């Protein structure tokens, strides 16, 4: 029951056991403390719950992941030299501070922070098998910002491979401005770089994550 429903409470577990006349037919009462001891004995502990969208491991998403892997394998099988470039954006707050500290027992652990919440910045970075190609931090990204980032990235990869006919594939997620018409048009005018979108809920397939 606990493995099937990680959020189940002791009283719910108690009610299910008493009400189950098939598996627990001879159990007419059981205390919550007894259940807690049994769970602990079997190494089942109270933990923070992590929310996972229902769609994350649906058959549709699994199929899209399979198609993505097939596409990558097909690219690897081609004779043309190519390299994957992984891009992602991540936001940070400038007043981010540690949440845990130390002090004498009975006294609060205190850290001085500004009275107002600080500003936010977004870091956009691109990596390949050779390491970090480009990184840039600014305010939240949008279509014009990502186009400027792609222009700089294109200049870097073409300058590094003037004597090689290397093909590059940009791999990133499905955020809306990644799919904008202007971004699609940019890739059409820069044939040395193609784009491959990650399946939904599949950030673990992006090496930069």
Summarize the structure in words.
The protein is an alpha/beta fold. The chain has 5 helices and 5 strands; from the N terminus they run H-H-H-E-E-E-H-E-H-E. Strands 3-2-1-4-5 form a 5-stranded mixed beta sheet, with helices on both faces. The longest helix is centred in the first third of the chain and has 19 residues. The two termini are 33 Å apart. It comes from Coregonus suidteri. Pfam families: DDE_3. GO terms for molecular function: nucleic acid binding. This is Tc1-like transposase DDE domain-containing protein.
Number of strands: 5
Helical run tally = 5
CATH class call of the largest domain: Alpha Beta
DSSP strand (E) fraction? 15-25%
Largest sheet: 5 strands, mixed
Helix content: 25-40%
Low-confidence stretches: none
Shape category: extended
Whole-number count of domains: 2
Going by CATH, the homologous superfamily of the largest domain would be Ribonuclease H-like superfamily/Ribonuclease H
Distance between the termini: 33 Å
From the alpha carbons, calculate the radius of gyration and give it in angstroms.
Answer: 26 Å
On the 0-100 scale, what is the average pLDDT? 85
CATH topology of the largest domain: Nucleotidyltransferase, domain 5
- Strand order across the largest sheet: 3-2-1-4-5
CATH architecture of the largest domain: 2-Layer Sandwich
Domain Tc1-like transposase DDE: 84-209
InterPro entries: RNaseH_sf, Tc1-like_DDE_dom
GO molecular function: nucleic acid binding
Protein name: Tc1-like transposase DDE domain-containing protein
